[in-house]
Specification:
Helix 1 crosses helix 6 and helix 6 crosses helix 7. The strands form four sheets. A six-stranded parallel beta sheet has the order 5-2-1-6-7-8, with helices on both faces. Strands 9-10-11 form a three-stranded antiparallel beta sheet, with helices on one face. A two-stranded antiparallel ribbon has the order 3-4. A hairpin with a 4-residue loop joins strand 9 and strand 10. The radius of gyration is 25 Å and the shape is elongated. The chain has 17 helices and 13 strands. Helices cover 36% and strands 15% of the residues. With 410 residues, it is an alpha/beta fold. It starts with 14 loop residues before the first strand and ends with a helix.
Length: 410
């Protein structure tokens, strides 16, 4: 459990006016927060980020009952302060602009142009705040025929091609089990923001970052996308198999599934030698990866029969000793119990106002030698920091804050 933790991150002193919701934006700003930035999360009074209600599971209160804090919300909102603010009102807009003036970054994920009508678009703010880095994350970007459409991770997985590559070769395409497009777009946005901060450090200039879910998904088709661009042929869906490496897929051992990831001919020969099937690697049909790809239908069933004869542990321990990549297909209980995951501290605990017990959160994978990440604030409850921000930063009196609350501004 962490309380009153010192901010040691490399982005200490950077402030973010975070108008993002759901996952893509919040995942990016959480990483900024882990690295020391101060994140002011803007939420609609009485409603908040939609993901607060995306459960169960929810955090349990002292009596064991569900609160309104979902596990989904907890996953992307650490190291933030929640300001409940209706920026569509004149008073709320005035507060927003005062806070933006003290921030380095504005991050929003509204539909393209939506904030212009409130005076919060980049073109409206850049003259007043020339050093502001404004990141707009949308489904389809700020131009093109789809720019006015809303984007959702599942739809983008379909439109952007990744679903066509995922799932059994002869069955329905499958989405990835987490919001893959959201998270990848958040990471691209984060990289853009860090580059823009570096540019501003050198020039004093802020800038606009236009990042889209569909663009990011197309970019991360990577070698699968290049397969099509190079060959002109649609990249096949192959389940757990690899289109250009064999054997490189999941196999069923006696007591569970393993991944055999043979990437070169030496590894294949080592596998065959250990399995007592040196004849396979000596056969010209299978001796090279190119020929194994050509003769996939013949060699893969043979490998499957070999793997099925022994346990996961047998294959993993013995093949690793011979430099043959092999590992388990873990369920999440085994992931979080894995000794390497435990040793690397990939779970952290933080005190949370909704629960009598600390909540467990997935930790940051970043390891800095001089400026380590820090876990200073648990994912905030809706509006938890409203009074603090208004009083400390804007010097409002308790009566002024109460008046705004009565009007529904905060």
């Amino acid at each position: 459990m962490t309380e009153h933790v010192e901010n040691t991150g490399p982005l200490k002193g950077i402030r973010v006016f975070d108008m993002s919701r759901i996952l893509a934006g919040p995942s990016a700003t959480q990483i900024l927060g882990d690295m020391g930035a101060e994140i002011i999360k803007i939420e609609k009074p009485g409603q908040g980020d939609d993901t607060r209600k995306w459960g169960p599971p929810f955090v349990k209160d002292a009596s064991g009952k569900d609160t309104t804090e979902s596990s989904y919300y907890l996953s992307a909102n650490r190291n933030k302060k929640s300001l409940a603010l209706d920026f569509t009102t004149p008073e709320g807009l005035a507060i927003a602009k005062k806070l933006i003036g003290s921030c380095d970054i504005l991050f929003e994920n509204y539909k393209a142009g939506s904030l212009d009508k409130y005076g919060l678009g980049y073109e409206q703010l850049k003259a007043e705040f020339p050093k502001l880095i404004y990141c707009s994350l949308t489904g389809f970007g700020h131009d093109g025929p789809y720019k006015d459409l809303a984007g959702y991770d599942f739809l983008i997985q379909g439109m952007g091609g990744i679903m066509s590559l995922t799932g059994p070769a002869d069955g329905m395409p499958h989405k990835i089990g987490v919001a893959y497009c959201d998270l990848l777009t958040g990471l691209y946005a984060l990289n853009g923001i860090l580059a823009a901060l570096y540019h501003r450090e050198k020039t004093g200039e802020g800038q606009f970052i236009d990042i889209a879910l569909l663009d990011s998904q197309v970019a991360t088709l990577s070698n699968a996308g290049q397969y099509y661009l190079t060959s002109g042929k649609v990249t096949p869906r192959m389940g757990n198999a690899h289109p250009t490496i064999v054997p490189y897929e999941a196999f069923r051992a006696q007591d569970g599934d393993i991944i055999l990831a043979i990437g070169n001919d030496k590894q294949f020969a080592e596998f065959c030698a250990f399995a007592g099937r040196g004849d396979l690697s000596a056969d010209a049909k299978f001796a090279t990866n190119a020929n194994r790809v050509r003769n996939r239908a013949e060699i893969v069933p043979v490998v499957a029969q070999i793997i099925a004869q022994h346990s996961q542990k047998y294959w993993i321990e013995n093949l690793e000793k011979r430099g043959v990549p092999c590992g388990p297909v873990n369920t999440l209980d085994k992931v979080f119990g894995d000794p390497q995951v435990v040793a690397r501290g990939m779970v952290t605990e933080m005190a949370h106002g909704a629960s009598p017990d600390p909540v467990k959160l997935i930790a940051s994978p970043l390891r800095f030698s001089a400026t380590p990440v820090s876990y200073r604030h648990a994912p905030p409850m809706l509006g938890a920091n409203t009074d603090e921000i208004l009083a400390d930063e804007l010097k409002m009196t308790p009566d002024e804050i109460l008046n705004l609350r009565h009007k529904g501004v905060v």
